[in-house]
User: Which sequence fits this backbone?
């Protein structure tokens, strides 16, 4: 998914750089509300895991691979603002040191994976939680759905950007169809991995999972036989 | 962090190192979704290739893991809400 230099023209790259810079500026403010003494080390761990997992491409169909983006994963575990920062750190290290993703495309990659994938993935997660039973066990399932949705969302955003500022004249509809089909497959892998990782954290330390907060309060209330408190409602 | 959380946290870092150092050897080298689409649509030639300072193979990948950990921890630790009173021993 890492966009190289040369795919998007200069105005489009500048525009995505501006979007990325604004998103990071907002995230630096928003993350203060999500991070405390307990969440901050977890966020560092999440960024590290996302970087490591992105090194492991899994095969999808013949001659194609995909890797975890980790945007929905990070958003569910540490909150969406912090997730935007985690993905940005990962993309900076990849782009600056590993030539993974272009330099002029850094803003594009932060926009696609650190903003679109994070926030669409998180929105899908929250919506899925509303539809699922109010149990902590629903969190991995909803997270997996968020992960699945986040990949085609980022891929379609790239297709949209290329339609506006691509450096080669190709049919936008063809690109949209090609990007959507292959990234829906990769999205299945993303969804499964996201559900597995979130599930294994939720089992051991539900208290650390940002996306399980309200459910946790409800579960504790149920366990102690008290009526659900007002703060347990979404 | 209390002891239990600290153990859990180091286990997580160990798992990340395992993924980066061992699991990554079995990674598929096939082109990823975007590369595949770009090749099929004939836009792959537009990509400007660069040489990275580091490579994911071997120690480079683990160095990247350490670097992401340091930068992300420094950032999130600086941004966190300070709990009233103690900052340690919770």
Assistant:
């Amino acid at each position: 998914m890492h966009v190289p230099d040369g795919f998007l023209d200069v105005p489009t790259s500048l525009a995505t750089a501006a979007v990325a810079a604004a998103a990071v500026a907002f995230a630096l403010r928003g993350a203060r509300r999500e991070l405390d003494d307990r969440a901050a080390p977890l966020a560092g761990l999440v960024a590290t895991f996302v970087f490591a997992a992105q090194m492991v491409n899994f095969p999808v169909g013949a001659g194609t691979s995909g890797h975890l983006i980790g945007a929905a994963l990070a958003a569910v575990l540490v909150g969406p603002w912090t997730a935007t920062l985690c993905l940005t750190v990962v993309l900076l290290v990849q782009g600056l040191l590993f030539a993974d993703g272009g330099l002029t495309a850094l803003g594009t990659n932060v926009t696609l994976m650190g903003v679109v994938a994070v926030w669409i993935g998180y929105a899908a997660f929250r919506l899925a939680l509303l539809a699922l039973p109010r149990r902590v066990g629903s969190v991995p399932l909803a997270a997996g759905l968020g992960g699945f949705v986040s990949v085609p969302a980022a891929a379609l955003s790239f297709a949209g950007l290329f339609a506006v500022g691509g450096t080669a004249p190709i049919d936008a509809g063809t690109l949209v169809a090609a990007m959507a089909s292959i990234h829906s497959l990769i999205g299945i892998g993303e969804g499964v991995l996201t559900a597995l990782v979130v599930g294994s954290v939720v089992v051991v330390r539900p208290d650390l999972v940002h996306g399980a907060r309200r459910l946790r309060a409800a579960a504790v209330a149920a366990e102690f036989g008290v009526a659900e408190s007002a703060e347990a409602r979404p | 962090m209390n002891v239990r959380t600290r153990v859990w946290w180091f286990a997580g870092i160990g798992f990340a190192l395992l993924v980066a150092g061992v699991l990554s050897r079995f990674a598929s080298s096939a082109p990823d979704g975007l590369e595949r689409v770009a090749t099929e649509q004939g836009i792959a030639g537009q990509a400007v290739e660069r040489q990275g300072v580091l490579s994911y193979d071997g120690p480079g990948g683990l160095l990247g893991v350490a670097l992401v950990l340091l930068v992300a921890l420094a950032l999130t630790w600086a941004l966190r809400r300070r709990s009233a009173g103690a900052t340690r021993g919770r």
Observations:
- The longest strand of chain A covers residues 58-59.
- Residues 227-234 of chain A have pLDDT under 50 and may be disordered.
- The helical segments of chain A are 10-34, 39-53, 71-78, 80-97, 106-131, 138-165, 172-204, 213-223.
- Residues 52 and 150 of chain A are 19 Å apart (CA to CA).
